[in-house]
Each structure stands twice: as C-alpha cells, then as structure tokens.
ribose-5-phosphate isomerase
Amino acid sequence: QPIEVGKKSAAWKAVDHHVMDNFIVGVGSGSTAVYAMERLALRVKEEGLKILCVPTSFQSRQIVKQLGLSLTDLEEHPQVDVAIDGADEVDYNMTLIKGGGGCLTQEKIVSSCSQNFIVIADHRKDSKELGQNWTKGIPIEVIPMAFVPVQRRLEKLGGTPVLRMAIAKAGPVITDNGNFIIDWKFSEVREWTVINQTIKMIPVFRQNRT
Ligand code: DER
C-alpha cells in the first residue's frame, strides 16, 4: 500500500529529525500519528530515548499506553517541545483542515502549547486551496446546547454547517470532550485567518441582551 508506506516513512523522518532526548512530545490522533508513535517507541527501545508524551485524544492516549511510552499531561508539562500530528488537508500556505477524526480540540490545545508543530500529511492532503480535496467541510467543535445558534451564525457566513452524525451510534458524534462537531461545508475560497477569528468569536453561549 504505497500511501501507508509514504505515511510511515514521513512519520519516521519527522520523529528522527525533530524529537530529542528529554523532550515533552505532543502526540497527535488519526492513522498517520500512529506511525509517529510507533517510531517513538522504537527509538526509546533502541536508543534509550527519554521522552514523555502528551496525548491529544482517547485514541492517542490508548496507543501511547499500548506502546509502553511514558505519559504526561499539560498540568505537569504545560510547555511541550514538539507536537507531531496529521491533518486532513493542507493548502499552499500551510493552512490546515484538522478534525476529520474528531480530535481537533485537544490537538489544537497541545500544538498551541508546543514550541514546534510538525504536521505529517501524505500527498492526498496537499491542496492548492482548502476544500479542493477535503470536501467534508471544516470541523468545528461546539458545546451541545449551543449547536443551533452556532449553525445559524455559520449560515450567515455562507456555506452549510452540518451536525456530524455517528455511524455506530444513534445520534451525533460525541467528542472526547463531550461535545458535538459541526462540519461547515463552504463553497468558495475564503480569507482563512479572518474566518478562523470569526468562528472563534461565535459565543457558544447566548449573551444576555444588555
Ligand atoms: O483529526 C485530525 O485532525 C487528524 O489529525 C486526522 O484527521 C488525520 O487523520 P489521518 O492521519 O488518519 O489521515
């Protein structure tokens, strides 16, 4: 499977190039991040690499434990040396779409606490403009009680905000943080920094009218 070979070799190179002894390492979620965690475990075994891993989801925490890597968290280590993660799409500007696996919030928090953020993305994720290859929309995690007001605010920005429904469970996907995900399907290319700021400003609680 050439794609898996590509993902694995990119993940191994990222780990070999960016992870040093005594590092606090943010470990991402999804299938590409698994290759990175496997490489970390191999280096610990073969070189005696000393690292502590901050997981970014239930999935990555489970894999850290299965591989015998040492776990830590942002309470113990709020400063992370490098975060290594996958992505769903990357444009020419290195703007990412993340959250296809529903783990975007903890991933973003850990990467924001990190000196260095390494994204491993095979050629399928490479797009000139966001939305070219990843057509499922921009994942936005919302507090359940606010999903309709947030949908309405997103509709005003254009595009179609869709509540992500679960497959192996009736009803919507519930994230590791107990929230919903809205996939915001947009039509035309946007000024993503402006959009990112605008989305962040959407109050997930209705403000009292003053
Ligand atoms: O949820 C995410 O952002 C993940 O990093 C993700 O969707 C990438 O997954 P993959 O490595 O399995 O393609």
Remarks:
- DSSP finds six helices and nine strands in the chain.
- Residues 82 and 128 are 26 Å apart (CA to CA).
